[in-house]
Amino acid sequence: xxxSGKVANLLIEYKPSKFVKKPEKTPxxxxxxxxxxxxKWIVNMAKWDAAHRYAKERGAKFVVIxxxxxxxxxxxxxxxx
Length: 81
Known about the structure:
Layout: E1 10-14, H1 31-57, E2 61-65, H2 72-80
Parallel strand pairs: 1-2
C-alpha cells in the first residue's frame, strides 16, 4: 500500500546499486571495463525510459530498487565477517 492507504500499481526492477548510477572513469578501471559499464548504463537508461512509459500507459509507476533499498547491503557485509 502507498502512504495514502491505497494499493499502488508498481512495475519494479531490481538492479545492483553499481548499475543504477552513471559510471565514473577512475585510474583503476581499464578502458575496456569502463566502456562495458558505459554500455550497460546506456542500455539501462533506454530500458528504464521504455518501462516508465509502459507503466504510465497502464496507470502504474516504474521504480528501480537496489540492495540498499532492501537493506541487504549491510546484511551481506555482516555475512562476510
